Amino acid sequence: SSGINAEWPLRPGADVSFLGQRTPKEVKLLSKTLKNVKKDAIASSLEKVVQYIRDKTPPDFSRELDTSRSNTLFGGFYCILTRALGCRDLQRPAFVKGLQELNFNSEVIESLADVLYNSATLSLTRGDDTPLFREVDWRLDVVLSNNSLAKVLQPEVLLGLKMTDSSEVKMQLSPQQFHALRQSTAKVLHDMFQLRERKFMNT
Questions:
Q1: Helix, strand or coil for residue 38?
Q2: What's 167's DSSP letter?
Q3: From the first residue on, what is the mean pLDDT of each consecutive set of 10 residues in the chain (203 residues)?
Q4: In the chain, what are the helix, strand and coil shares in percent, each to the nearest 5?
Q5: Which of 55, 74, 119, 201 has its CA 20 to 30 A from that of 181?
């Protein structure tokens, strides 16, 4: 038998950032813009983003000297935080690492991480209490005989799912059913990664 640690929805892995396989253009532009932005402007932009996520209040840039820069900050921070909120079990170290790989400075990273993980407002948006896959165990058995036949030699896959709410789900699959499940899962994962790269998912 074999044990596989997994959770669903997917968490970013070693090769996939929480931002997706390709860095969104809003984040790339933000990374370049931040080099010439002061701390108070960053804090003000993050405050507007949190307010928008909370109650969809449109940001007011009427008093800003540089509205183009303000839009860039807002769009980039909004993209980062909403992508992170979409990853159900994204831990702070993985979030920080993802931004470090894009050469964000440590102060900006810590500010974003504090907003994401220490804000009561954003913590309420991190999904419901639907249990996730915590651990997957499987075992291959061979049925030697049954009540009808003296010799069967039929393989069966026993699949056990341990959930985050401590419940367990057990399934008995034929090789054909197991391969169908494996192929369906691979297709879903492929479609999800493709969907995350579509433009309308970044709005």
A1: coil
A2: -
A3: 41 63 88 87 88 80 77 91 81 89 90 81 53 77 69 80 79 88 86 68 50
A4: 50, 15, 35
A5: 201
Contact 27, 102 (CB under 8 A): yes
Give the tokens for residue 75.
């769009």
Q: Which of 84, 76, 86, 85 is nearest to 108 (CA)?
A: 76
The residue behind tokens 């009427």 is: 62
In whole angstroms, give the CA distance from residue 199 to residue 203: 7
Amino acid at 2: S
> What pTM, to 2 d.p., does this model score?
0.55
What DSSP string describes 51-111?
Answer: HHHHH-PPP--TT-S-HHHHHHHHHHHHHHHHHHHTSTT--HHHHHHHHHTTT--HHHHHH
